[in-house]
């Protein structure tokens, strides 16, 4: 019992006794007080009033105050929580999901109290500049009018101590907050197109896309300040049927929804996550997006998936999967002299009978397809094992081994001694000469 609870209980008992004393007058005796009446007035059980009567109705603090139980519902999971806190992860939802997978049956309240009492384990944040106050004004768009997109980057640590950087493509509907994320080994333009197409297939195509001045989108601005589009991106806009608006340079608040989404992904989805490969990671990302899109969000005052399905999708248009869009899903690759193509940092074999110098590569789930340049034929299929070793196909090389011939006149000359006939063991003896003697 806290000190405040003791004081409140003492005040309640004192007022009840004073009221009984005023009613009974001089005949009132504290030793013969009616506990049933006192309990009716205070709401305290008669058993507890008997204990208080022994102390003269003085509420004393509990003898176990300040002590803690040796075992709690968090016992056995504190090492996992401490590990998260040392990494700077204090998000109770992330930690709760992790310890529940290990058998935790308690609630979030106990976890929050533990995190609050062990904040000394959290590394100190970096020093931030003084806030400058509100300089902008939020704006809203209609259903299906605008999406925001951007890249975020995370560091992935491998088991052998090495690490590499991965890129997270993020897209969000500005009206309802419907979100989509996908991870790639890098942030090249071809991966930007693949991420946008996958996002359009799930969310529909809006009127325009709001993004920053990334090199994959714009090459700069002309003398009038108008954007000069990247030629390949301009072709993609025409093929998919949308427009693009660029933000003011060095002003991330313009597309604050996607900036906040990337920060939410890093603090909620990425924090403490362990995965097998990028394909598995993208499966988990889709499930995470479906879960978040199905929850009520106070910032938009709706459930994003319900609002997007009911209003945003009908206002936009669907993406037609034609040959022009299919080429963006299968980037062009040059075939090396030994019959391999490079895709996402790994090499995959191409059949020897394919005589062209280029082909297209497309990955769907755990299968990688090598296609002809015009997408009319599947040349080979590989299982994406994400191993650094080269992946060969069955007919990558012909049965006859290739032979090299001289390209210049041969000038180097050597001599070979004639071989002697084998005369056997007695060949070294001259029997005719010995007979003449």
Describe the structure.
The protein is an alpha+beta fold and 437 residues long. It has four domains: 3-54; 78-121, no CATH class; 146-315, 2-Layer Sandwich (Nucleotidyltransferase, domain 5), CATH 3.30.420; 330-437, no CATH class. It is built from 13 helices and 13 strands. Helix 5 packs across helix 6. The protein starts with a helix and ends with a helix.
First and last CA, distance: 136 Å
Mean pLDDT across all amino acids: 85
Look up the CATH topology of the largest domain: Nucleotidyltransferase, domain 5
Residues in helix, %? 25-40%
Question: Helix and strand layout, with pairings?
Answer:
Blueprint: H1 3-24, H2 35-42, H3 46-54, H4 78-86, H5 92-101, H6 108-117, E1 146-157, E2 163-173, E3 179-184, H7 189-203, E4 208-211, E5 218-221, E6 227-229, H8 231-240, E7 243-246, H9 256-269, H10 278-293, H11 304-315, H12 323-329, E8 332-334, E9 340-343, E10 346-349, E11 358-364, E12 367-371, E13 378-383, H13 431-436
Parallel strand pairs: 1-4, 4-7
Antiparallel strand pairs: 1-2, 2-3, 5-6, 8-11, 9-10, 11-12, 12-13
Helix pairs in contact: 5-6
List the defining traits of the structure above.
four-stranded antiparallel beta sheet, alpha+beta, about 425 residues, 13 helices, 4 domains, five-stranded mixed beta sheet, Nucleotidyltransferase, domain 5, single chain
């Amino acid at each position: 019992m806290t000190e405040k609870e003791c004081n409140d209980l003492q005040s309640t008992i004192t007022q009840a006794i004073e009221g009984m004393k005023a009613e009974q007058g001089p005949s009132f005796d504290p030793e013969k007080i009616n506990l049933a009446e006192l309990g009716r007035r205070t709401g305290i059980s008669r058993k507890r009033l008997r204990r208080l009567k022994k102390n003269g109705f003085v509420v004393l603090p509990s003898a176990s105050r300040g002590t803690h139980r040796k075992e709690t519902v968090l016992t056995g999971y504190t090492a996992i929580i401490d590990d998260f806190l040392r990494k700077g992860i204090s998000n109770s939802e992330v930690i709760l999901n992790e310890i529940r997978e290990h058998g935790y049956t308690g609630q979030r309240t106990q976890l929050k109290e533990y995190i609050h009492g062990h904040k000394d384990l959290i590394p100190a944040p970096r020093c931030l500049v003084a806030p400058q106050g509100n300089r902008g004004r939020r704006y809203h768009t209609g259903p299906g009018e605008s999406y925001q997109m951007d890249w975020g980057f995370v560091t992935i640590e491998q088991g052998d101590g090495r690490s590499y950087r991965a890129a997270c493509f993020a897209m969000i509907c500005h009206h309802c907050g419907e979100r989509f994320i996908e991870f790639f080994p890098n942030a090249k333009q071809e991966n930007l197109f693949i991420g946008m197409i996958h996002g359009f297939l799930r969310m529909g195509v809006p009127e325009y896309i709001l993004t920053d001045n990334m090199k994959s989108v714009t090459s700069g601005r002309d003398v009038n300040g108008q954007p000069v589009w990247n030629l390949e991106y301009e072709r993609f806009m025409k093929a998919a049927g949308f427009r693009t608006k660029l933000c003011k340079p060095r002003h991330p608040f313009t597309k604050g929804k996607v900036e906040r989404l990337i920060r939410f992904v890093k603090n909620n989805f990425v924090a403490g996550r362990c995965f097998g490969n990028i394909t598995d990671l993208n499966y988990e990302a889709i499930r995470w997006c479906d879960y978040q899109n199905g929850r009520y969000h106070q910032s938009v005052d709706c459930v994003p998936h319900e609002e997007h399905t009911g209003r945003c999708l009908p206002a936009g248009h669907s993406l037609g999967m034609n040959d022009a869009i299919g080429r963006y899903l299968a980037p062009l690759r040059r075939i090396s002299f030994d019959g391999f193509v490079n895709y996402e940092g790994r090499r995959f074999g191409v059949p020897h009978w394919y005589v062209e110098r280029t082909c297209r590569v497309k990955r769907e789930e755990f299968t990688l397809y090598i296609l002809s340049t015009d997408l009319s034929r599947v040349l080979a299929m590989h299982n994406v094992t994400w191993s650094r070793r080269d992946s060969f196909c069955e007919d990558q090389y012909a049965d006859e081994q290739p032979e090299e011939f001289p390209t210049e006149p041969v000038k180097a000359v050597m001599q070979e001694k004639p071989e002697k006939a084998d005369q056997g063991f007695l060949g070294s003896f001259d029997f005719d000469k010995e007979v003449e003697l």
